[in-house]
Write a structure and sequence with these properties.
Layout: H1 4-15, E1 22-26, E2 44-50, E3 53-58, E4 62-67, E5 73-78, E6 88-92, E7 96-101, E8 104-108, H2 126-132, H3 139-144, H4 154-163, H5 175-199, E9 224-228, E10 233-237, H6 255-260
Antiparallel strand pairs: 1-6, 2-3, 3-4, 4-8, 5-7, 6-7, 9-10
Helix pairs in contact: 1-5, 2-5, 4-5
């Protein structure tokens, strides 16, 4: 589950080894990018992160965009090894290596600049994000769409809505409640990123209050659970603690059940 905080932490780690020459490269070459041997002799000149995307620029090849899906990650250091063969591996001068695991990679001509949609950036537009939560779309879908909350995935979605006491099937949040959700997104993602930096571990996790839990930590009743919204992602909430704001009257079928009905 490589979400915004993990991608930003990967950027931080890779920036430490910028400008070191690549001495060898290997991996499962995805379509549309150079053969591994073509990276040898080049250096990483820039690393940027936006939401769930990592951008790595090399001297001659250009910029590679990485997306890590549910199971991908980045390892940086001396003697690092992944459980599976890396999608791409760079061995650098000085003995350190950069491993991109379970990643989709594309060669892009430019890095998109949308800092106002990433809660981990100072330019994040909180007013615009709050407005999107009051326009009649399921708030769970808005948080996951990456349009206004780049980097938010299913874990933050559950935790953010629980902290704000918002039912995840809500569609029209009042202005004050919407801003509370926005502030909660910034707080959760920032806290998660800082935890990774403090632990020097991309897998470091902040305490979770509802994700993978079965009872509400506040009122102790069993949590409601289901696949919510058009994104149909697994969601938990407390029917006693959360408030409905134009709630949907149903939850989506699971992806498996949806497939069976075809």
């Amino acid at each position: 589950m490589t979400e915004g905080p993990s991608v930003r932490y990967a950027r931080r780690r890779i920036k430490r080894v910028r400008n070191r020459k690549i001495t060898s490269a290997s991996g499962n070459k995805p379509k549309g990018i150079p053969e591994p041997f073509e990276f040898v002799g080049q250096t990483i000149t820039e690393v940027k992160a936006h939401g769930k995307h990592l951008y790595v620029t090399l001297t001659h090849v250009g910029t590679l965009r990485f997306h890590f899906g549910l199971h991908g990650t980045v390892l940086v250091g001396n003697g690092v090894q992944g459980k599976n063969k890396p999608t791409l591996r760079f061995d650098l001068e000085g003995g350190e290596s950069v491993l991109f695991l379970s990643a989709s990679i594309a060669l892009v001509t430019s890095i998109p600049e949308f800092p106002n949609t990433d809660p981990l950036k100072k330019a994040f537009d909180k007013v615009l994000a709050a407005k999107a939560l009051g326009e009649g779309v399921c708030v769970s879908d808005v948080l996951l769409s990456q349009t206004h909350f780049a980097g938010v995935g299913n874990i933050p979605k559950n935790e953010i809505l629980f902290a704000a006491k918002v039912n995840p099937t809500s569609t029209v949040l009042p202005e004050g409640v919407a801003m509370e959700v926005v502030e909660g997104a910034v707080k959760f993602l920032t806290g998660w990123y800082n935890k990774k930096c403090q632990a020097e571990d991309i897998k470091a996790m902040v305490p979770l209050h509802i994700y993978k839990k079965w009872k509400c930590p506040d009122c102790k009743i069993n949590l409601k659970k289901g696949y919510v919204g058009k994104t149909s992602r697994w969601t938990k909430w407390c029917e006693s603690c959360s408030v409905c704001y134009g709630c949907l009257l149903y939850t989506s079928p699971s992806p498996r059940d949806r497939q069976k009905s075809r």
